[in-house]
Amino acid sequence: MKLRQVISIFISKLAIKVLRLIKKGGTTLPGKLAFKIYPGILRSIAGNFEIIMVTGTNGKTTTTRIIEEILKNNNIDYITNKSGANLLSGITTIFIQAVTLTGKPRHRVALIESDEAAFNQVTKHLQPKAVVVTNFFRDQLDRFGELYSTLNAVKSGLERVGDNTALILNADDSMCASLGRETNKPVFYYGIAPEAQAGDTLNSGDINTDAIFCINCKSKYQYTHHIYGHLGGFFCTGCGYKRPAASLECTGIQEAGSSHTTINWKSAPPLSETLQEYTTRINLPGLYNVYNAMAAATCGLALNYGANTVISAMQSFECGFGRMEAITVGDKTIKLILVKNPTGFNQVLSFLALDEQQLNAAFLINDKLADGTDISWLWDVDFEQLNKSPDKIGNLFASGLRGEDMAVRLKYSGLDTRKIRIIKDYQLLLDRGLEQTPPGGCFHILPTYTAMLDIRGILKKKYNLKEFWK
């Protein structure tokens, strides 16, 4: 028994307790303290857990939440970083909470969401049983660098894990799918099948701006079918690289509502002994959440959890902190939806277009380090699509540290400037937004990360919500 390990755990647990008492969260600082005292702490205490990891640009938290529901349905004792603290220090904190002072684990499974930029560092300390990679999109250039740097960092992290680690990869993402090539590890692909595009249900209008050229030979990709961004049935005429066959696919969208999506999907070997087909109502709206559900389902089946428990999880799980989180206020609803890059923002706007009700929304844009200090990405967001139904636009509010920039972007999208207001005070913003939302309507709040923490802190006090780490 290493004395430094015991001291490290004790000090960190004490820090968690004190920080929680003063309502500071205690999600990252205790992990930092632990590493200062004993740099080998995470590797030492995590070795006795069965670890599932989720990484990628968009959808990490939602995918993790659905997998969490699968674990619950199978009566699995687990820990997970619900707070969203997904860097090395936050991940260390969650493991320290889950062991005794001597480092003995109190739980069987650890379900860990990892920031894609931190994944390469995290895998120096953890050996996962399965890794889910959701996608790669351009995100926070000042922090991540260009897109292929992030891909290569994740690739390096995967090369470090064991040969028995199952890789769950997005077949429709040319970069994500490339991680399954030339590996001895078991690989399970998921995606959206060409036949799912029948009609206009999946016509997002979003174009490929992130991965236009082949990752191998730099020829321009062609597509048999296109979902959104660079996702779809890609193929390269130069070297033959193409979308791999998926063992789990969405084969159709039966219903696309403002609070749910009903899909047809199928699983095939090696995920199931024979071809199996299902119809499932996902407890989330939006095409991007279909991908999240498919990723989680593939992980569940790859780990041999029953199909019935997987389906139940897709239908019943709760939305994660700030990710489609709904708050009922009398006969109205506040919906909090994190936005952080052009592709994700575009998909949220496409989801909003599905709602038949008047659109009342607030855009909260910060430019702190955790948000990305370069906000020029707002000009790559297709706000112009809101002009398709101008009569449906109610009130649009711009707020956050860069609220004025957000208002300018809305103005140049062609929207009626009489409906755009800048309100920097969040309490006043909530009051005005709810006042102008009609009975039975929804006030949508779309913040960047630090703005989400700020506005949710106000919402927590006002409406007695759960703490963000619960």
What features would you describe in this structure?
There is one protein chain. The protein is α/β, with parallel strands linked by helices and 470 residues long. The chain has 15 helices and 17 strands. The strands form 3 sheets. It has a 9-stranded mixed β-sheet, sandwiched between helices. The protein has a 6-stranded mixed β-sheet with strand order 12-13-17-14-15-16, sandwiched between helices. Strands 7-8 form a two-stranded antiparallel sheet. α10 (287-302) packs antiparallel against α11. Mean pLDDT is 90; it is low at 198-205.
- Tell me the number of strands: 17
Return the structural class: alpha/beta
Span from first to last CA?
32 Å
What is the helical fraction, as a range of percent?
A: 25-40%
Report Rg. 22 Å
Count the DSSP helices. 15
The strand line-up of the biggest sheet is 2-3-1-4-5-6-9-10-11
Which residues sit in consecutive blocks of at least 5 with pLDDT less than 50?
198-205
Overall 3D shape: globular
Mean pLDDT value: 90
Content of β-strand: 15-25%
Biggest sheet features? 9 strands, mixed
